[in-house]
Amino acid sequence: MLFLFNLPLIFTLKGFLLLDTRYSTIIGNTTYSAFDIHTNVVDSIEHVNNFQIETTETLNAVTLYLNTATIMNVYGNSTDYVISNDSTTLIFYSTVGISNAFLGSILLSYSNDTWLTNLQRYSLLERLNSTNQTESVDWNTSASVVIRSNVFPDNKCHLHIHSYDSISTISLYHDNINQNIETSSWRSDVTLFPTYTTSEHDDNIVFYTTNIYDTKTINSIDISFDSNITMNAKSFATFTDCSYIDQLTRSNTCINDDSSVSSNNETCSMIQSANLLNFYCGFSNASYENFNPDIDCCACGGGFNKYNTLVQTQNPNIKNTNIIHLQNTSNVLSENDVVNGTNYVIQMLVNFEMTCTDFQTNFGSIFNAQLGQYLYQLLTKSIYEHELSCYYKLTLETDDKMFAIALSNYFNRLIPITHLQTILYIDLQTIPSYTYVVSASNLTAAYNSRNNTGYCTYSINTDAILA
């Protein structure tokens, strides 16, 4: 007997390509931005988006088509790469597979955002299958819910939404939703559906936004030094209890409708998924009486979807949604990492493999623009040349501990603006405050000795205690 199925299994590769902003600055009409690139792929075997099995796979090539931007540098890469002659296309590759989700950091220059459209339209994520055939990954129609823990300066966790299309509604599935959600800090343009706290929806947060804004890139913390230090996390929500939001899941929560039975007196849950797919799905007829597997059974595309984590566009379309727990890719200091003192000294030393004249002519304005005008004026700058290499040292002393930590963290977010630049070190040192304790007997002895010897000064042993 030949069975024809009108709901076949769909074998697809799905993944994400995430751009996380490290910093951005503008000179004239040109923007210079550095991004961390994260990517991954899962092998999804699904049946009408409800019944699915996922296993993480490795990529063999990631092609980033970035025209009209210019690639200035690639930094901290975890795999090999090549850049096109016109510096608009970047390919990360590995014949054995790219296993690290963090590919590297890139510095781009551009005068408009057309490159983001081209990135989504033409970039490729590819892998080699068992027969060495290239398979492409469906990534540019997906969205990502990004979670970051212990973000400086408040050490809270932040929730980001990354999507290359404008979004309107987000549903977050959580195993233990409670009133913590009400005390969290949400974007001013985000509205929570009032039903999220009811028992019927106790595993789900639903919120929506009517504003259209850029979600094509995310930014864990935007540190700027314009007339003063400002630190703004570009996120949808901020949670004080990071362990709480870390429980956010993207699980298959489809539930069978077992209110009816088949001609064999079996509900959907009593029938194995393979048998449903082979003998029931797509073959609803009167012999099953009120049993309709295409409506009742998850394996056939029916059942009840119990509030999966998903993102909906303004079209509206439901996007394939990933949950990403993102780690910091640069060194980040917190307040507890730095000893208290009266003053703090922050230093950064970089080297350019060229004369200082060439550096000033070709890269000086770009390098200084990374700092911003306000910070540039505060910093003490020294440049010296040694063996045809230019060394540039930036130093700042301050009595503001949080300012010192923010500046150190900002320095660590900068990446070399050219492959000829090396960041030799970034250092934060505390100038401690001491209380000197001298006993009364030592003071008396010193006074008497001075009178006896006729000297104006006299050495005294003291105990120094760190304040």
Q: What is the number of E strands?
A: 31
Largest sheet, strands/sense/barrel: 6 strands, antiparallel
Question: What radius of gyration results from the CA coordinates?
Answer: 30 Å
Classify the secondary structure makeup into a structural class.
Answer: alpha+beta
Please tell me the overall pLDDT: 78
Walk me through the structure:
The protein is α+β, with helices and mostly antiparallel strands. The protein contains nine helices and 31 strands. The strands form eight sheets. Strands 13, 15, 16, 20, 23 and 24 form a six-stranded antiparallel sheet that branches. It is elongated and about 115 Å long. The N terminus is likely disordered.
In short:
Helices cover 15% and strands 43% of the residues.
